[in-house]
Amino acid sequence: MGFRIRKMGFYLWVCFSLLCYSLSFVSSQTEGDTTVEGTVFIDGKAPIATIDDDFICATLDWWPPEKCDYGTCSWGLAGLLNLDLSNNIFLNAIKAFSPLKIRLGGTLQDKVIYDTSDNQEPCTSFVKNTSEMFGFTQGCLPLNRWDELNAFFEKAGAKIIFGLNALVGRSIKSDGSAVGAWNYTNAESFIRYTVEKNYTIHGWELGNELCGSGVGTRVTANLYAADTAALQSIVQNIYRDVDLKPLVIAPGGFYDSNWFKEFIDKTTKSLDVVTHHIYNLGPGVDEHLVEKILNPSVLDGESRTFSGLHNIIKNSTTSATAWVGEAGGAYNSGHNLVTNAFVFSFWYLDQLGMASKYDTKTYCRQSLIGGNYGLLNTTTFVPNPDYYSALLWHRLMGRNVLSTSFAGTKKIRSYTHCAKQSVSLVLQLASRYMNNYQLRISNMVNFHLGTVERVKFGIPRTLCQSVWMLHSGKLL
Ligand SMILES: *[C@@H]1O[C@H](CO)[C@@H](O)[C@H](O)[C@H]1NC(C)=O
Ligand SMILES: *[C@@H]1O[C@H](CO)[C@@H](O)[C@H](O)[C@H]1NC(C)=O
Ligand SMILES: *[C@@H]1O[C@H](CO)[C@@H](O)[C@H](O)[C@H]1NC(C)=O
Ligand SMILES: *[C@@H]1O[C@H](CO)[C@@H](O)[C@H](O)[C@H]1NC(C)=O
Ligand SMILES: *[C@@H]1O[C@H](CO)[C@@H](O)[C@H](O)[C@H]1NC(C)=O
């Protein structure tokens, strides 16, 4: 690994209670030899956005052990068909969130068939074949595996979002587009089986990365809207005697303003959640990922997507809300010792803050386990640093998001929410330049400042690409 980082800082959460409208405080940090001062302005009059209580979500993918990128095979037995469901570290890691949302899906979801009674084909796993789209043949989910997964999710208290195969029945034209209506026979019987077994599914999501210009192939917004209406009608029918109705979610792909606008306008009666994916750092093989993660203008770039989607939703009569359905930062499975190391929290925490600011209700991290971007180690299930970032966020950051701005260096990222547990605010500051920080809170208006509590996570700069994390000097 060839990265050298001169300095690596901290993320800092400041919790304080107050009864006030606005405040500002001054923080200064030493950058090299000079001290830089900045002021954080928080407007506490009214929230600018609201997130779900269970905003934190992570994904499980279908990739088999044979999935390799640039010569590295990073999935091991972390795929849905192979995952060890008897591992206690895994169980407890999920339980700690009570609940963690988990989205099941990914590239191969549009090649999965379900072994319900209508299925005529043998139920076999994916087989590597480079001439096939996505590099693998069709694979099959056996019902006994689906039973095991559901037993595990119930024990772990997870809320499941299941990504359905949206390519069944379509044919792929020579220009790369997929045409013809979605054949939902297999999906319908799979949903019916799930309901008969009393498994609780939080949401059914249609398709993976088929919107806009698509990955592998693409489906037009008009056709996708018709298929989403079909999914909603299947769901309404199957769940008619069930009290808890699942969400109808789509399209689970990359944001494209024209495609999303048309889709959202045509699904005002059928769609509950509009999902988009984020891989804004480029391919995992990139040798300059660390520089990108620490570059404020790269981080800021994603705000165009968030605000674009937010405006489309605001402008539409839809009642659908936006989620990030899958975000791994660097595509093709991430990069070992970057997207699973301490340094990646500078991207991840910034994403969580930015998504919240634009009223994104839920954010699914690729991945809970598997690839080089897992919250958990692929072989040992031991938490990587971002697991702790996710857990801290989940415990501290409440639903109401407050307008926060920082006058000073762009290298300090600041986000404020009302706290989860009490009448207080949580300000999240993250910067690699916060080695020697001072935080001075100044009483700008008449407010009562209660206890100030700081939670600081850091790592000695030499270990920034390590997978450890320190909390108050103690190794986690
Ligand atoms: C791989 O897929 C192609 C196209 O579907 C097929 O013609 C070929 O026989 C497959 N190769 C193997 C080894 O199965
Ligand atoms: C849809 O797929 C099923 C097999 O799952 C098949 O029996 C049926 O004929 C297909 N429907 C259409 C309209 O092609
Ligand atoms: C599902 O729940 C219903 C009502 O609570 C019950 O009658 C039925 O036996 C349950 N089915 C299974 C497969 O557990
Ligand atoms: C929102 O609607 C207004 C008025 O119809 C229009 O001018 C504007 O371009 C729309 N914005 C988006 C993002 O669709
Ligand atoms: C995951 O654990 C294995 C076994 O302890 C170790 O070799 C590997 O380096 C770990 N991976 C990461 C990213 O920490």
Automatic annotation (TrEMBL):
Family to which the UniProt record says this protein belongs: Belongs to the glycosyl hydrolase 79 family.
Recorded topology in the membrane: Peripheral membrane protein
A Pfam family reported for this protein in Swiss-Prot or TrEMBL: Glyco_hydro_79n
Any one GO MF annotation of this record: beta-glucuronidase activity
GO (cellular component) term, any one: extracellular region
Signal sequence, renumbered to the chain: 1-28
Keywords: Glycoprotein, Hydrolase, Lysosome, Membrane, Secreted, Signal
Function text: Endoglycosidase which is a cell surface and extracellular matrix-degrading enzyme. Cleaves heparan sulfate proteoglycans (HSPGs) into heparan sulfate side chains and core proteoglycans.
Location in the cell: Lysosome membrane; Secreted
Chief place where the protein resides: membrane
Domain of life: Eukaryota
Keyword Secreted: yes
Keyword Signal: yes
Name of the protein in its database record: Heparanase-like protein 3 isoform X1
InterPro entries documented for this protein: GH, Glyco_hydro_79
